[in-house]
Amino acid sequence: MKLKNLTAIALTGMVCLSACTPQYTVEGKWADGAGKTVYLQKKVNDETPVIDSVVVAADGSFSFTLPAGVDVYELNAAKEAKKEILVSEIPVVVTIATELRTAKDSSTYETLSIEAVGDEQKVYEQGTQMIMTASFMQLGRMFALSNILQGKDTTMTLDSAVVFFDMMDARMNESIYNFVDSAKNNYGVAYFIKDYMIRSMPFDTVQVAYDALTDRVKQSAPGLELKNAVEALAAVSIGGTAPDITLMTPDSTELSLSSLRGHYVLLDFWASWCGPCLREVPNVKAIYEKYHDKGFEIFGVSLDETAGPWKAAIKKNDMNWHHVSSLKGWECPVAKQYNVTGIPRMYIIDPEGKIIAQDLRGEELANFVAGLYE
């Protein structure tokens, strides 16, 4: 066969390969955006690099062609407005518009808005909004309870405030369950479970939500990521074997959690700057002093970033048990492994290394430990 024929066949194969590769398209309209640039970005770790850009055509249209696969991208209109979009086989249409808004001083100014329309996009945005609502509720709860404890708010007692917020949490949880059930065939719910439920809800609840998803969602890219996250959460949930921890002590020597096998251990994630952690110290100290002679141990993992405040808090509060830290704050690899998204975070580990309880505090923690020895 002649060389030019081989070349022709090779080129034909390349064209076919290119033409046959599945692709997804994002189409948009920017009525007064002719000549302006729209950027497409993708989150990679903690950065969001630009992966593509297009200049808006004279008729205001623009489009991006992407490899087939479910993923979330960020659309950036001339670096003035941003919007997360869920790209899948279901079309999503983007509209960028100029809006006139009024400032506090009654002056007006123009700003850009981005709207993305599509069935999958709708579910993704519902999940995002639900995460924001739940987060604001938790902040409100912490702020209100803090004000009551400090005497700044005398309109409610602590007990009545707890009852009120527990009721609000129950309503929020019901909304979450209904949302997951109604969206179990949508990719967006996989992101919701991974980005919110895994960080904030018990493992059993997360497992039920994951099991309810359809195979379409489970076998997608976000579904597979969620599967890995659920499995990782299972490893640090009740019944799982506590992953070993080896970090530096205040004396700069290594200490491993596994060195305490044969004992009941309270694994306590805390930090010197954490008010709720320090308020729990007297209770934890009383438990330690009562049961340490019977073999009870505490393994404190600090999320401090500098050694000074960490060591000072240990000394000031007479926390005379085992302490370690990576001094990397929230970037502590152990905290990530244990899915720690808020502190204090506590686990009780049995002599065989199994997790038997988590997130107990106050009287509930004291009663549980008492039941292990009495």
TrEMBL record:
One of its GO terms (biological process) is cytochrome complex assembly. GO terms for cellular component: cell envelope. Residues 236-374 form the Thioredoxin domain. Keywords: Cytochrome c-type biogenesis, Disulfide bond, Redox-active center. Coiled coil: none annotated. Gene3D superfamilies: Glutaredoxin. GO terms for molecular function: oxidoreductase activity. Transmembrane segments: none annotated. It comes from the Bacteria. It holds the Pfam family Redoxin. This is AhpC/TSA family protein. It comes from Candidatus Caccoplasma intestinavium.
